[in-house]
Amino acid sequence: MSTNDDGRGLGDFGDFAHAQTPGLLGLAHALTGNPHDAWDLTQETLVRMGERWGRTRFDEPAAYARTVMTRLNIDRLRRFRREVLIAGHHREDARVELVGELDGWLVDALATLTPRQRTALALRYVEDLDVRGIAARMGCAEGTVKAHLSRGTERLQAELARHRTTARPTRPGTQEATSR
Q1: Nearest-angstrom CA–CA distance, 70 and 176
Q2: Is 177 a member of any domain?
Q3: Mean pLDDT rounded to a whole number for the chain
Q4: What is the mean pLDDT of residues 63-80?
């Protein structure tokens, strides 16, 4: 088994990948908004980590993997701006296991955010990072992160208010139900 300077072998990477995949996949899903893109982003992150595992000493490999994932996602978003996407056949046979169910309105609301707003909110609420940590992961100024968080939160609150006004079920015994 080959090892690096601190004695960690390549077998340790398998353990690391197995332990970190669920958390990385959850973050990737929050970043991309799409379970299939989330799998791609998670796999690319693990590939990048695996390439460096035997050559680089990581103080916090899990934190480094999340930073790699965030930066890969930013690169992915930049590429999308330059590419013209062609509609194609989507494979429906690929299964993705989600950690928890989200309300449909929330998924729709997250889709209305800009990619950088969604990234900042995902790092804040999924990874529980502060503004400084988010800025470091996204490679931008703290003021920019605050603006993304503020605007993204405002948009989600507006979507929540819209959802609440359009989806008011009437309950038996309430005044709305008895006045009909």
Answers
A1: 47
A2: no
A3: 79
A4: 87
Same domain for 88 and 129, yes or no, is no
**Cα 92–chain centre separation:** 21
Burial 84-112 (b: 16+ CB within 10 A, else e): eeeeeeeeeeeeeeeeeeeeeeeeebbee
Give mean pLDDT, residues 33-52.
Answer: 92
User: What is the phi/psi pair of residue 105, to 5°?
Assistant: -65, -35
Tokens of 180: 């009909």
69 and 18 in a single domain? The answer is yes
The answer to whether residue 9 sits within a structural domain is no
Tell me, yes or no, whether 135 lies in a domain: yes
Of residues 136 and 7, the one with the higher pLDDT is 136
Q: What is the pLDDT of residue 82?
A: 57
- The amino acid sitting at 85 is L
Q: Is residue 176 one of the residues assigned to a domain?
A: no
In contact, 68 and 43? CB cutoff 8 Å: no
**Mean pLDDT within 58-65:** 90
Q: Which domain holds residue 80?
A: 14-98
What tokens appear for 176 in the block?
């709305």
Same structural domain for residues 64 and 82?
A: yes
Tell whether the model's pLDDT for residue 107 goes beyond 60.
yes
Residues in the chain: 180
Residue 63 has pLDDT above 50, yes or no: yes
* CATH number of domain containing 124: 1.10.10.10
